[in-house]
Amino acid sequence: MPSDLDTLLEMGFDKPKAELAIKRTRGLQGALEWLEVNQDKSYEEIVTTSGDPSKADDDPNAEPAPLQPGEQARSLVCNECGKRFRSQAQAEFHASRTQHVDFSESQEEIAPLTEEEKTTRLEELRQKLAEKRAGTSEQDKLDKKRNEEIRRKSTRETQDIKEDLKKKEQLKEAAAKRKEKQGEIDAKARIKAKIAADKEERRVRAEKEKAERQGRAAPEVAEASSAATTSGPVESKPASAYTEARLRLQTSAGNLQKTFPVTTTLFEVAAAVKQETGTEVQSFTQNFPKKTFDAIDFGANLKELGLVPSASLIVR
Hints:
Layout: H1 4-10, H2 15-25, H3 28-37, H4 43-50, E1 75-78, E2 84-85, H5 88-98, E3 103-106, H6 115-214, H7 221-230, E4 244-251, E5 254-261, H8 266-277, E6 284-286, E7 291-293, E8 310-315
Parallel strand pairs: 4-8
Antiparallel strand pairs: 1-2, 1-3, 4-5, 6-7, 6-8
């Protein structure tokens, strides 16, 4: 026949707590009641509150030994709820849980549980213990799920920050390369202008010398031509006066007509094309004058690239 301790261990109670319950109550019935009262407390909390468990026999709250023949039977009754207790310790535990304070003594002795009652009580405790463990397991699942959601959200935010920094670095690098490229173009243009000016100067000097040799006045064709160029009747609106640019974009899905502010970058134009057609833009090509704008130029705006007031671009 299994001992009281073995019975409690089979129910799933921790061994230190079960041993302490047996020592404190000296019987299975009292141990079950004691464990039910202290089910929400850990072994460490009980030991800290009540002292050394090895001195349980000296604990004033411990349940006394069963009544001996000839001794007067006594019990305690809670006048607020009518529940009876075999010992003062049980009554004190009941008071701590329910805040009931009205107790009285009774001459009626509480009869010990029958085997059937013990079996029923054990089954009730098993169910309570199983429900408590199930609740703890369910809470653990919810906590794990919530922690996973927090981790995923943190990962997404970190990825968004990294992508944003990457785009900014790309724009910065593209702007630097564009500036360097523009510097080279300007230098070449200055050299060409210098060569053209020198050539024109030599031509005018040669014609002047020829006219002097022939005894006639030097021609003023170049000056007249220059005056006609600078003071001609044609007046056009400068590109700097426009605030918008009309773009005709030729894509694999068809042609798009879009109007953008002149400060819009090619990167933003590419994003608009992708949103409209789903196409990932690698470059834009202009047929006249023939020019290709790749990722290096994406950081420049339409005004800087000379696409104002209008332009036709092939999307690659």
